[in-house]
Specification:
This protein has 363 residues and is an alpha/beta fold. The chain is 66% helix and 12% strand. Helix 11 (317-333) links the parallel strand 7 (302-310) and strand 8 (339-343).
Length: 363
């Protein structure tokens, strides 16, 4: 009842058409009754059982006659037996695909040659190779009546297929967990990190003992955009703003949507001067790059607050975030489309003078 490998080809070569029919009939109905008992049977399981019995018995009977006709010639070439087994697996696979394509065409599931070719291409070449060599070995062992080796072959194939199945399930579960985690920590509108992930990243960065530039920024007069136009335009402006900010960041930086039109950035592995220059470049680029909505362009501006500090030395990162938020408020109160900086370490006065002078020079 193991689905990993079909042994029908080797049984057909060994026992002939009548033997393969008996084998397929018994095997398929054992599977059928097992599924009925375990409540895993499909609604049409009974019809499928007859179809599988007939199609596999027919295919492997054809393989039996091909083997009988071609084996004398195959013996004359190196590895002829194995090449013949591969050929028989290809023939039986093509026959099975042909039957299914005809049925799918009648039922409307396949309606074109392209769809039929895609169905044929979906068959795994590796699975076909596994079937060819497993059935070739089984056929040889049956001829020689090596029953211990036959049992070992069954067990080996079963263990390998079960191991592969378990690994596939484990990989699938990991992918599902990763996808769920991505959805849980991603803002649906902008596809950047959300506030939940920002809170989590704060905890890890808080113990990093590294210098961090925390930027809090939002779009100036965003409510007027929604009021004067509509929320669809507002959403597009937010998306444009997020993409603009993201374009300035390195892979070690983090961008979060921390509110409606508010975004928070963690800059890492940069000096204070580099952070202030980057913020000014962001502000200038936002001002010069209107958001496009269909055939219209909507200019907007943004304000920024930057707080630069060393984690765990002067303040907790959550307090540093509050400082950055307050600096944003200062920029807003100063007339919007502005930046406000602060160096939160021992040489703060010098840094603040530098930030203030540069900001005045760029405005």
């Amino acid at each position: 009842m193991d689905k990993g490998i079909s042994y029908g080809l080797s049984i057909g070569l060994f026992a002939g058409p009548l033997g393969i029919f008996i084998f397929e009939f018994v095997q398929r109905f054992i599977v059928y009754f097992n599924r009925k008992i375990t409540n895993t049977a499909d609604p049409d399981e009974f019809l499928h059982t007859f179809y599988n019995t007939g199609s596999f018995a027919l295919n492997n009977s054809i393989a039996f006659f091909l083997f009988t006709a071609l084996y004398p010639a195959a013996q004359q070439i190196p590895f002829g037996f194995w090449l013949l087994m591969i050929l028989l697996v290809i023939v039986t696979a093509m026959l099975s695909d042909t039957y299914l394509i005809i049925i799918f065409y009648i039922t409307g599931s396949i309606s074109s040659k392209k769809e039929a070719m895609e169905f044929i291409k979906s068959r795994s070449v590796l699975d076909m190779g596994k079937t060819a060599f497993s059935n070739g070995l089984l056929f040889l062992f049956l001829l020689e009546q090596h029953w211990e080796i036959i049992v070992a072959l069954f067990l080996l194939n079963y263990l390998v297929s079960r191991s592969f199945l378990e690994k596939s399930k484990s990989a699938q579960h990991k992918m599902e967990r990763d996808k769920f985690k991505q959805m849980a920590y991603t803002d649906f509108l902008t596809e950047v990190y959300n506030r939940a992930y920002m809170d989590r990243k704060m905890e890890s960065l808080n113990a990093s003992n590294e210098k961090i530039g925390i930027i809090v920024s939002d779009i100036d007069s965003f409510k007027e955009i929604n009021d004067n136009y509509n929320h669809a335009v507002g959403d597009r402006v937010i998306q444009h703003y997020a993409a603009t900010l993201q374009s300035f960041l390195k892979k070690d930086d983090y961008l979060f949507r921390s509110g409606g039109d508010e975004f928070t950035i963690f800059l890492r592995n940069r000096s204070f001067r580099e952070c202030t220059e980057l913020v000014e470049d962001m502000r200038a680029h936002v001002e010069a790059s209107p958001a496009a909505v269909e055939d219209r362009h909507f200019p907007y501006s943004a304000s920024f607050g930057l707080y630069y500090y060393k984690a765990n030395e002067q303040a907790d990162i959550k307090k540093a975030y509050v400082h950055a938020d307050n600096l944003l408020l200062q920029a807003k109160s100063g007339g919007k489309n502005r930046t406000s900086f602060k160096y939160g370490m021992n040489d703060a006065p010098l840094a603040e003078r530098f930030a203030h002078n540069r900001a005045e020079k760029t405005r």
